[in-house]
Design brief:
The complex is a heterodimer of chains A (262) and B (257). With 262 residues, chain A is an alpha/beta fold. Chain A is built from eight helices and seven strands; from the N terminus they run βαβαβαβαβαβαααβ. A seven-stranded parallel sheet of chain A has the order 3-2-1-4-5-6-7, sandwiched between helices. In chain A, helix 1 crosses helix 8, helix 3 runs parallel beside helix 4 and helix 4 packs parallel to helix 5. The termini of chain A are far apart. Chain B has two domains: 204 residues, Rossmann fold; 37 residues, no CATH class. Chain B is 45% helix and 16% strand. In chain B, helix 1 packs across helix 8, helix 4 packs parallel to helix 5 and helix 6 packs across helix 7. The chains are: A alpha/beta (262), B alpha/beta (257). Chains A and B meet through helix 5, helix 8 and strand 7 of A and helix 5, helix 8 and strand 7 of B.
Amino acid sequence: MSAKTKGGAVVTGAARGIGRQIAEGLVADGYGVVIADLDPTTGEATARALTEAGATEAIFVKVDVTDRATIKAAIEACRLRFGSLNVMINNAGFNKPEPFLEITEKTWRAILEVNSLGVLVGIQEAGKAMIADGIKGKIINTASIAGRTGFPDFAAYSVSKAAVISLTQAAARALAPKGITVNAFAPGVVATPLWEQLDKDLYAMGASAAPGEAMSSLASQILLGRVADPKDVVGTVKFLWSEQSDYMTGQVLVIDGGMVLQ
Amino acid sequence: MSARVAILTGAAGGVGRAVAERFARDGWSLVLVDTADVVHQVAAEVDASAEGRVVGAVADITKAENLDPIENALREIGQPLKFLGLIAGVLQEVGPITTLDMNEWDRVMNVNLRANVLMIQRFVPPLKESGGGAIVTVSSWFGRSGHGLFAAYCASKAGLISLTQSAAAELADDNIRVNSVAPGNVATRMHFAALQEEADNRGVSFESMKKTEWDKIPLRRAAEPAEIAAAIAFLAGPDGAYLTGATIDVNGGVLFT
């Protein structure tokens, strides 16, 4: 049995990258956390590492966010183990760059299925669980600055993240009467496995002249002069899951070191 | 925590006072600025719960030559300046553009826009001297979109958001982050007075006017001043270290941006 917690949280895509850092922040803040991810090997290891380092516990549940039953199972596991679902972080997402004229239906569908439909299902199932338990919970979605402005080599990703912003707004209106708030954060360029892969893909596509160039050219557009470390994002997400942001709903917090200035 | 000072304008108002109380609790020393002498009383009351020092300064910040008392108070405390909270603002007299008195336009622009430029000009040098810090402006959801009968106020707050972004771009290399908090309705005297004025204009009761306005807000209430202070404290602190040029909308969902 774990130490007394502030309640439970589910983080999708939490095996690595931003999701892992958020999960670590939640554990440090006293939440029991479900690491919901497709990858059991890394996910289990992350859950173990967070449990060893933290005062509370992290458990792994294999989740494919496009499969409603698996999201339900992760939320159920959270309620059973930690008593309730208080914080839902819909974070799972991926990107596959393609030049605009060569975007395939297959890529489009795959990206929208995970990044947009996955967030819809995550909000729905979290909302139902919070309502059933009478929890005035916090639902937080990972958007992106790409959801605020289109990028030529990842149009589908931009669309999928714009959808996350729209879903955040619709859900905020839908769930406000139940005391549940729904917000999003929009990271800029973050040094994560997603961005490392993106940098490689862009180089392979010929969109950049050298490995690392795509990322560093974006970094030069950031006022603070560097790309974000996943840790940089955690403070913002923590603000959103804490009672400090109780009067915020339907909002998108841009955390990009000063790139899009919106 | 090491000693550090925050300057807060509009400190005698509802939001300003809440920010002062929050920052005092977080261990800051404070220079509290307002146009009225009552700011000294606010400073004395806030001081009681503070680890740091709290000093009041009376100044009409719409004129550069009036800022000396603020600088004197900063010098009196003698700790590094790490935060500038530009909270002071005024509402306009409600009315259409076609008959808007240009003196009223100037008054609103002077307080909501010009004063903030003057404050930035005067206090960026001491922020740089202390190795950088943060500036937060308090804009408004009325600066995120235009509203009938509030042209001057809306334009001034939209300008303030723009000013915030320009300052963020100019000051990033000096390690000074500049962000804005855009409140919706806040349960302050200013908000209740505005509701009363609009109720009188429409010939309805205060309670019915309040219900009309608050029903537009998904969370069905105005913010507590402390909730605006919480967002400002977040932007001033280490958790906000990667944010600059951003505007945080703390508005109960009344507007999505």
